[in-house]
Amino acid sequence: MDIQGQVFALACSVAVSAGGAWWFSRRFSQARHLLDTPTSKIRSAAQGYVEFYGVLHDSAEGALLGPLTNASCLWWRYKIEEYTSSGNKRSWRTLESGSSEALLQLNDSTGSCLIDPRGAEVRPLTREVWKGSLRHPLGAAKTGWRALFSNDERYRYTEERLHAGQPLYAIGDFRSSGGGRQGLDIASAQGAVIREWKGDFGGLLQRFDSEGNGQLDEREWQRVQLAASLEAEDRHRRQSTQPAQHHLGKPREAQPFILSCAGEDELVRQFYWQAAGGALLCLAGALATAWLLGINSF
């Protein structure tokens, strides 16, 4: 093997080892997060990182339509691929892909929670894959004899969906508003009110510039701060009387955000198998690297 070939092989073996180590670390860490996070009920859940089991319900925003099948659903993800061949090289090339961002409503025996699916690893129960001759399919997937004897294989379509009534395991960052659950940070709330008032500085002067000189002196500014404090307390009081609203979204830290129709046990089992695969890749890459370095030392 020439020098260039050896360098290329060494780079590939190092990359395989590093990639396997990263995949092992990622999947093993995700499995531990799932096992270490206790299951909570929506009504009594603490603020922060939580996991829920529940059932998907129709939300106030109404049902969506799958972009490829026009099937009614609550969430969708699709992909359109084209079959390409060049010499002995054949592969499927992705032409289009996307997923919906509408809020999901998860209900358990104690309440409901809205879920923002953006940034989540979604593992739906419904998945359809079929092929056709047009870039965009005309309706639902072919089934039965039509699919068996179809030779139109230039394009491959994949659509995944979540539907009302399906079970859902969700783990992510939980936040509640209303219902008297939020404490009042008076300094922060007062500052937010003052910033809002400064957006209409003319109106602010009209209310608090008693001398009419177009400026706020120290005494007038104290009145602004007092009024802003009272306004912040009043807003908090009004918000606390509203029914509690619960939201689940992507955590700010590097914690798993997963929405899955499969339960925790099945997910953990899959993650451990994938972590084992990553460890084997890392070991294979390390052995190949050691072997290549051993060749170069002689």
TrEMBL record:
InterPro entries: MUL1-like. Residues 231-250 are annotated as: Disordered. Its EC number is 2.3.2.27. It holds the Pfam family GIDE. This is RING-type E3 ubiquitin transferase. It is found in: Membrane. It is a multi-pass membrane protein. Residues 84-180 form the E3 Ubiquitin ligase MUL1-like domain. Coiled coil: none annotated. GO terms for biological process: protein ubiquitination. Keywords: Membrane, Metal-binding, Transferase, Transmembrane, Transmembrane helix, Ubl conjugation pathway, Zinc, Zinc-finger. One of its GO terms (cellular component) is membrane. Its main location: membrane. It comes from Pseudomonas leptonychotis. It catalyses: S-ubiquitinyl-[E2 ubiquitin-conjugating enzyme]-L-cysteine + [acceptor protein]-L-lysine = [E2 ubiquitin-conjugating enzyme]-L-cysteine + N(6)-ubiquitinyl-[acceptor protein]-L-lysine. The chain crosses the membrane at residues 7-25, 271-293. The keyword Oxidoreductase does not apply. One of its GO terms (molecular function) is zinc ion binding.
